[in-house]
Amino acid sequence: MSIKEYNGPAGGWGALKSTTRHLLKSDNVAKNIMNLMKTNQDYGFDCPGCAWGEKGVPGRFRFCENGAKAVNWEATSRRVDRTFFAEYSVEWLNKQTDYFLEYQGRLAEPMRYNAKTDHYEPISWDDALDLVAKHLNALDNPNQAEFYTSGRASNEAAFVYQLLARRLGTNNFPDCSNMCHEATSVALGKNIGIGKGTVTMEDFEIADAIFLFGQNPGTNHPRMLETLSSAYRRGAKVLAFNNLRERGLERFANPQNPIEMISYGSTPTTSHYFMPKLGGDMAVVRGIVKILLARHEDALQRGESVFDLEFIETHTQGMDAYLAQVKATSWEQILEQAGLTMDEITAAADVYQNAKRVIVTWAMGVTQHKHSVATIEELINLQLLFGQVGKEGAGLCPVRGHSNVQGDRTVGINEKPNAAFLENFENAFGFAPPKEHGHNVVNAIEAMLRGESKVFIGLGGNLVSAAPDTDRVAQAMKQCNLTVNISTKLNRSHVNPGHDALILPCLGRTDIDMQATGPQKVTVEDSFSMVHASSGRLDSATEHMRSEVSILAGIAQRTFGATDPVDWQSLVDNYDNIRLLIEKVIPGFKEFNQRLDVPGGFYLGNSARDLNWQTPQGKAQIATNALPESVVPHVKADQQTDNMFVLQTMRSHDQYNTTVYGYDDRYRGVFGERNVVFLNPEDIAAQGLQAGDLVDIESVWNDGIERKIYGFKVVAFKIAQGNIAAYFPEANALIPLSSKGDKSDTPTSKSIAVIVTRSQEAPLLARA
Ligand SMILES: Nc1nc2c(c(=O)[nH]1)N[C@H]1C(S)=C(S)[C@@H](COP(=O)(O)OP(=O)(O)OC[C@H]3O[C@@H](n4cnc5c(=O)[nH]c(N)nc54)[C@H](O)[C@@H]3O)O[C@H]1N2
Ligand SMILES: Nc1nc2c(c(=O)[nH]1)N[C@H]1C(S)=C(S)[C@@H](COP(=O)(O)OP(=O)(O)OC[C@H]3O[C@@H](n4cnc5c(=O)[nH]c(N)nc54)[C@H](O)[C@@H]3O)O[C@H]1N2
Ligand SMILES: [Mo]
């Protein structure tokens, strides 16, 4: 275990070395090298890593270090089967780390929990599917079932899933995106009429300025570094706004560029680096607009303008009210919340004003706060004032997480389906889907805790470790009559079973999916609304696993019986049949099957990019919001103490959400451990602490529940003062379920008020 400063660029030899090490650990070396060569190729499988798009030279390998880890992790030859579960009780497994659980290998056969022995035991597929049907049919009301989705599910699996739930009669679709980009979908949907980004990969090639808010591409979207460094090289300005100094936002050595590799060279990824306070981005943008508004008013005196008045007039509504609000916002409040100086905000405003084409990107650093919707609205406002939406080389670019999280939403995983979707659905299937809004993640957990929801089904994911308030989510699961996890790997959600519980092992992206009509392909949609096909390549030791589609259709057949109007079997036999239904229900998928043969896939289109505003008003909306009074408004002045900080939770370099691949966070210089907390050196000194000391962290909330984690090692880091950072899922126990974003219900994973104290005793052995 060690902490040492990392001085190299992101990528480079370190990335290659790490890729090789993870390959060697997978027990499937030769196959996995072949696998990597198929990743993101036109006829291979889509990388199960992130949702960044792909555009490149055909035939070239297109994977990154973290994509390689994701592929290796899934394609391991280790198996978790009946012998494993006979050996270990669920209670024992629940004491192991997340790393331990997933590292055991792929789930090999269906298992059912036996509460008497506290062990999982083998069950046949027929009996398992019958059991799910029995529980679903026993509900008084379909809204007592929760259908959770994780964004790795393909369009085909997700479509069949939503069909199953709606056939049953519920819109309860808690979804990982509720914890992720929900605020994005809310703000974009309301203000520009479509909840998706407006840019394409090509736009990055001609943008003059790229503003990056709250994301760490070096770890989470490594292929984006190539895009950023090439933008920098051709002279574009790239501005990072990040609470931490992240190496990937400074320099990148492209492992696919022989000259950079051999010469130990690297290219900067950004031209400017600003470190706002947590949740300060809205204030930063407000400040930029305030400066530009003053310049605009000066220009008007000379008969000129700084804003794009023609665009504003033709395409938007709401400018006057917004500008009045900007004027009313004091500089004092802006600078205090932003945590940047006037000079820094002015520098950013200068770049913005001088650029003809601007792209604004953002991810979790923006979406996981209480005021995230308002922050994204501020980003949209800035772009609208300058006509930077709907033109080439410019636009709004939320950088999505899971490889198909956007697609899952597109094909109907939505707890609040709109009228057009419901109508298309009814026309396609001849029965009316439920209209009543269903549960998102927070609603679902609350309903389970109240005992109202009784069946939990998870199509992938790991709700217990992904959601806030870990102990309460575990409790919610345990109270269910039945929990079903359709999964590839063992995780915390399996070892917190309901009274009855099933683990249903499924095929992953890398596996061959063989059905009656031959091997099947699935489709995914990236952050740029490109839809493309993915077909797996591996087929060893998967004989007792089933495809997600086949499992879901199996549940449906047994729940609804042989006379059901939906021909579920035809969907399993040939996934083209699912795509024909998607084509009927979802706009943009005309000739879906035929268009998949085009290398690289097809573009779904984006109405806002076409300046077609699908808002009730028919125009883009410029929203007016006051800055929040504080990032953690529940903390009253008299509760403030010198050891109170705002905590963000984030990913290390060796993890994929709740999947922990290893204990290193190379670019942040942390090796061999995860129970660490990053503090500014001045804050460390002011607390009378030293790097390496152990501290306990307790959250400040208003419901009387104690939330505390123990024995976290202090790491000195370049982070805004008053802010601290720790990894998720370890720090999830600190986030109250009821601390959530306005209008998004997203847990506030990036702003939690906490008190830090020196650990009094030897650290309790962390459970996870
Ligand atoms: N290898 C790998 N790839 C992944 C994932 C993974 O876990 N591992 N997860 C996938 C998923 S689901 C997602 S959603 C994405 C997540 O991608 P990111 O959004 O990059 O994920 P985080 O690790 O949460 O990083 C948040 C970043 O925002 C900064 N930040 C936090 N709060 C603030 C703030 O208030 N203001 C500003 N300006 N910055 C802030 C943090 O310092 C950090 O650099 O990545 C996807 N890709
Ligand atoms: N504190 C804090 N909490 C957070 C976040 C944060 O930044 N801070 N980020 C949030 C975000 S952005 C997200 S997206 C969520 C993620 O929440 P989830 O999507 O629920 O979590 P994952 O860790 O991605 O899920 C991992 C599990 O998915 C299963 N799996 C993997 N591949 C497949 C597959 O192909 N099919 C099936 N059926 N199962 C598969 C494996 O069994 C694995 O154990 O977490 C959220 N939670
Ligand atoms: Mo995410």
From TrEMBL:
Q: Per the record's keyword annotation, is 4Fe-4S included, yes or no?
A: yes
What is the similarity comment for this entry? Belongs to the prokaryotic molybdopterin-containing oxidoreductase family.
Q: Which UniProt keywords apply?
A: 4Fe-4S, Iron, Iron-sulfur, Metal-binding, Molybdenum, Oxidoreductase
A Pfam family cross-referenced in the UniProt record is: Molybdopterin
Organism domain of life: Bacteria
Species of origin reads Vibrio tritonius
Provide the cofactor list for this protein: [4Fe-4S] cluster; Mo-bis(molybdopterin guanine dinucleotide)
- SUPFAM superfamilies in the record, alphabetically? ADC-like (SSF50692), Formate dehydrogenase/DMSO reductase, domains 1-3 (SSF53706)
InterPro entries, per the entry: Asp_de-COase-like_dom_sf, MopB_CT_YdeP, MoPterin_dinucl-bd_dom, Mopterin_OxRdtase, Mopterin_OxRdtse_a_bac, Prok_molybdopt-oxidoreductase, YdeP_MopB
Where does the Molybdopterin oxidoreductase domain lie? 106-488
Recorded protein name is FdhF/YdeP family oxidoreductase
